[in-house]
Amino acid sequence: MKTYWVRALGLGLLVVVFAACGAGGDDGNGEPAKKYEYCGYGVNGDAENVLAFGINTETGALTALAGSPPATGRLPYGMAVDPLGRFIYVTNLGDDNLSAFAITASTGILTPLANSPFATGEGPYDIAVEHSGRFVYVLNHYSWTVSGYAIAPDTGALTGIGAGGTGAYPYFMTVDPLGRFVYVVNGDNFDVSGFAINASTGALTALDGSPFWLGEYPGPVGVEPSGRFAYIINNHFSASTRDINVYAIDPVTGALTNVPGSLFAVGNNLLSITFEPSGKFAYGANDSDGTISVFAIDAVTGVLTEVVGSPFYVGGEPDSISVDPRGKFLYLGDSSSRTISIFSIDAVTGGLTSAGSPFAATVGAPAIVRIVQ
Fold first, then answer.
1. How far is residue 248's CA from residue 282's CA, in Å, rounded to a whole number?
2. pLDDT digits (tens, 9 = 90+) for 165-207
3. Which of 1, 74, 210, 271 stands the most exposed, by the fewest C-beta atoms within 10 Å?
4. Which one, of 249, 256, 288, lies nearest residue 271 by Cα?
5. How many DSSP H helices and E strands does the chain contain?
6. Do the beta carbons of residue 347 and residue 353 sit within 8 Å?
7. Whole-angstrom Cα distance, residue 13 to residue 18?
8. Taking the CA of residue 78 as centre, how many other CA atoms within 13 Å lie in the half-sphere pointing to its CB?
9. How would residue 233 be classed by pLDDT, with cut points 50, 70 and 90?
10. CA distance to 47, 279, 281, 297, 368, per residue, from 348 (Å)
11. Could you write out the three-class secondary structure of 110-122?
């Protein structure tokens, strides 16, 4: 029998995408009512569907969009949106496939794609769409592979383009923001598999020197917006310490080189890491401490410096975070209270201030992409 590890949430992960969308109703002239500049979408693991929110860009507040949320498969887990905001893809851990939806730009409504769901490997966990919106990649935990798919620009339909082999029991994956490389953290090997993306076909080729050694119990991986540095969380369970390693990314080969002195302490059980869009700050959710670690990123070296006031105490069990495209608000999912909390980001210091009461949900925090109309 398979045992599914779902980031210790046990309920579902919210990945929020920001996109232009309608607020519902009409303006009295048969036209859609006031539009939100962004919408957010989240995986509701308990009910196995996708939630939709309107985003107030002045306050950061979330408003549930009217209409029934579309159903996913069993144990929906990861979510990704193409950068043009046309389609959403959700991995179904219990069905070994992924559900696909089209986003209606004028309303934010999701419509299941024809032929959805699409088959994946065994145990699809993480999912990512590369920067051009032409290819999507799925990390398959039990078949130890990354599956690649080409996205039809008009329909969002997926066509398989092959798979790359990983190490044992991969858990986390990221695609660098420039669409050059895919990095996969292998849970049982304590290393990371790296792949180059063919710019024409999307096919994956293992990088020279891959897999790269990471250290004890590597966790989530993220690449900051410039694509020059990768950040990998280390969960040293035997030593009861947690830290982040910084790796310089070779722009040609994709090879990872550890940045000297780059072991930066974080809180207990850091489950996710994300970045402010300009690349000035990094944020990590410390699930067991009820805190958020905030770091300033050195633009030249990638080195992290903890900002004044960090870690910021938020309470509960924060497990997933995202930042809106303007770098104005941070969204934090809490698995214990089943809420999404909103924080204002200080543009100078990166510090956090509560931006109102948490939004009730059964998901984690929104991951964000803007829809282009």
1. 16
2. 999 999 889 999 999 999 999 988 888 999 999 999 999 999 9
3. 1
4. 288
5. 0, 34
6. no
7. 16
8. 27
9. confident
10. 40, 13, 10, 13, 22
11. EEECCCCCEECCC
pLDDT tens-place string over residues 139-170 = 999 999 999 999 999 999 999 999 999 999 99
**Residue 153 dihedral angles phi and psi, to the nearest 5°:** -65, -25
Tally the residues of the chain. Answer: 373
C-alpha distances (whole Å) from 94 to each of 23, 46, 143, 172 are 33, 13, 14, 18
Q: CB under 8 Å to 99, separation ≥6 — which residues?
A: 70, 71, 72, 73, 76, 89, 90, 92, 112, 116, 117
Q: How far is CA 122 from the centre of its chain?
A: 20
Measured CA to CA, the distance from residue 309 to residue 340 in angstroms comes to 21
SS3 192: strand
- The structure tokens 């779902």 sit at 6
Give the CB-side neighbour count of residue 97, counting CA atoms within 13 A: 12
Task: Indicate the residue type of 261.
Answer: G
- How many Cβ atoms are within 10 Å of 33's Cβ, its own excluded? 12
Q: Are 271 and 8 in contact (CB under 8 A)?
A: yes
Beta strands in 187-290 (DSSP E): 191-197, 204-206, 212-213, 218-223, 229-236, 241-249, 256-258, 264-265, 270-275, 281-286
CA dihedral sign of residues 336, 188, 172, 310: positive
